[in-house]
Every structure is written in structure tokens, then in C-alpha cells.
Amino acid sequence: MASPKRFAAIAAVYQAVRVAIRPGGPSLGERAGAFPRLVRAAITGEYTAISKGRLALMVAALAYIVSPLDLIPEFVLLAGLADDALVMAWLATQFVEETEAFLEWELAQVSPAYAASSGHAFPGGSSSTSHTVRGDVIR
């Protein structure tokens, strides 16, 4: 019988996949391309919606998944795979949620009208009502 933790992990992955593949949403490639920009903006303090600690946890989770060292070795029946699955479920969920928020924030930086019409509060954004984009002023 599956444990509640496994059900929670499956539900989290399902929700992350649903958000990630919804029509009109960013593709996995766009999300992957946005992640280095997210890290750079978070480290420089330009983007404040994610903490440096959360970024460190995401990197640690990725390292744990790809590392041959495990808390519970794979040869211990299914328990050895379950710990990797739980970490992977958490990482997938965080990746989708964080890149979703970051891509919206990036779009708001280019188009303040989008930010105003969407009703989102975009952390780290400018409070100015105009931005310069490719030589044009957008109000």
C-alpha cells in the first residue's frame, strides 16, 4: 500500500506538470532558459520573490538526485527509490512554481501595463510608471 508521502509526492508532480503544460504557458525549454536568469537576478537582488536559501535548496536537491550517494541506497528495495522520488517531486514543483513567477515578473519589467492589468504584485520591480524598452517609453 502506498504511503501518504508517496501520494503527496505524486499529487505535487501531477500539479507541477499540469501547470507546466497548460496551453499558452511557457514551455519546458523556456522555463529551463529562464532559470539561469532567475538565479542571476535573485543573487544580485533584482528579483526578491525567491530567497537565496530556497535557491540553495533547489541546487542541493538536484545534486542529491544526480549523486550516487543516497541517504537510503537503491538496493534497499523500493525505499531507496522513494527518497529520490520525494526529492524529485519537490524539485519539480519548485522549478515550475518559481519559473512561472519569474517569467511573469520578467514580462512585467518589459510591460508594466501587463503588471497593472494582471493584478499581480511583482517583487523587485520598479515602482516607476514608465520604463524604457528599446528606446521607447512605455507608460
TrEMBL record:
Domain DUF1232: 55-90
UniProt-recorded name of the protein: DUF1232 domain-containing protein
Origin organism lineage: Bacteria, Bacillati, Actinomycetota, Actinomycetes, Micrococcales
Organism: Ornithinibacter aureus
Keyword Signal annotated: no
Pfam families hit by this protein: DUF1232 (PF06803)
Highest taxon, organism lineage: Bacteria
Keywords: Membrane, Transmembrane, Transmembrane helix
Subcellular location: Endomembrane system
Stretches the record annotates as Disordered: 119-139
Bilayer topology term: Multi-pass membrane protein
